[in-house]
Design brief:
Mean pLDDT: 87
Oligomer: single chain
Shape: globular
Structural class: alpha/beta
Radius of gyration: 20 Å
Largest sheet: 5 strands, parallel
Number of helices: 9
Strand order of the largest sheet: 3-2-1-4-5
Low-confidence stretches: none
Length: about 210
Amino acid sequence: GRDTLLLPKDIAVREVEVPARLCSLPVLAARDIRNAQPCGGVAILMPKNSIGLTIAKAVVGAWLTGNRVVVRFPTQLVHSAPVFSELLRTHLPGIEIVSDCSGPQFLSNALRDAGIQAVVIYGDDSWIDAYRPLAESTRTRVLFEGPGNDPLIVGADADIDAAVDAAIRGGLMNGGQSCSAFERFFVHRDVLANFVGRLATRVAGMRIGPP
């Protein structure tokens, strides 16, 4: 199907283990959800990737804090969306899964819904700005995660080996296909040559393989 994805085993296992760990009792306790105040209603437009991670971070968190939670999965996930929907309905009573409208219509409806106080969106910078007037007029909180333009900042007193490790991990994780991947570098002029030299040497010795 269109959402069939072949992953190396260690990557596939991590796709399950990381969300499971985030939903474990010790991690939830550390987030101190008990003292969080619900805002009322939260609408979440799910991304096409990292579904398990998004459920663990956004959906579970919003539900545990006592909010009404409305979720829409992308239509491209023709095989996995029903599985995730059933999982949520089984373990998070009262959650609402919307599947009878497009993504733009879901956002418009959510922003106009008096029972929705916050909208969580995973998308692209090119179209999110069009919703700004509606969000401002309805005074709905919008939490948006897009591709961004994420920098790595290396100061004059930085541990250069650690900075190079971070640059490689943050820039090439998942083959660079990550919304939080480093896309630019701000390096202090005093350490620029050292940083670039070590980074170039490390990258030149890398082999293309599992992300």
